[in-house]
Amino acid sequence: MNDDVKVIWKKGDEKMPEKAKKIVETAQGELLLKVLGLPIDVIDTIRYNADKKAQTINHYISELVLERVNTAS
Length: 73
Hints:
mainly alpha
């Protein structure tokens, strides 16, 4: 295993670089989809729609939940 790792950002540094931010947001979205335990076709639809709207998976799901809460109110 290669021990030469290029660190692109550490907590406490200035603002997170866009490259690191995108990786973190993607990982968070994938973890959320895994935790929700949805069928694969629903997961694919969520990924597609989030990408189509240029949103993260977290933002897209949050938007769906807020719409449902507002509709139920």
